[in-house]
Known about the structure:
Blueprint: H1 3-7, E1 12-16, E2 19-23, H2 31-45, H3 53-74, H4 79-86, H5 89-102, H6 104-107, H7 115-124, H8 130-138, H9 144-149, H10 152-182, H11 185-196
Antiparallel strand pairs: 1-2
Helix pairs in contact: 2-3, 3-5
Amino acid sequence: MNDFFIAANRSLNLEIDDVSLEVRQITMSQFDLWVGAADPIKSALGNVSDYSDEILNKLMQKHLIECVVMLQLITDLDHQAILKTAEDQDVFIQLLQTGLKANQSYFVDKEQKSKRRKKRTETNDHGSTWFDSFQLLISNGHSHESIMNMTYGAFKLYSEAVVKREKQNIATQSNIIRMAHHAAAKQFKSFVDELKE
């Protein structure tokens, strides 16, 4: 899905036997319920973004309960209605495929992190919680309520944007410090005056 689909919290519609079914993106307010069901599905899928019928059939056989719980959170169907759709394998596969597509931000990591970076992250994140991630966004103008109403995809992309901006700010400040250290007083005053304009 593109960034505007995610940012606008859009849904996908699935037409099943003259019935239009809305399949939503998961919001952060339900993420704790979502992750318990969706994580085993994510692990089983690997980092695949093209879900063939064969892959989804295997997924259904291994993780039917998790699929039902996940779909219940992103549709208006209850678990009995979802289990009823599972009786028609083609319909259930369409529903599952639509749910995975709408929530692709969770299931597909576009950036494969290097092992070196992963090790460094693992050693530094001993005390990190979701509140640390929330605080990052709150300190950049978001409210708790707005974060809880965000889709997971929007939360992830906003967090990445804040981290990217913080890194750019650090690089800029480092360059200014270096310039101040090596520049003549007149040159540095001229540089600061340009920044004020």
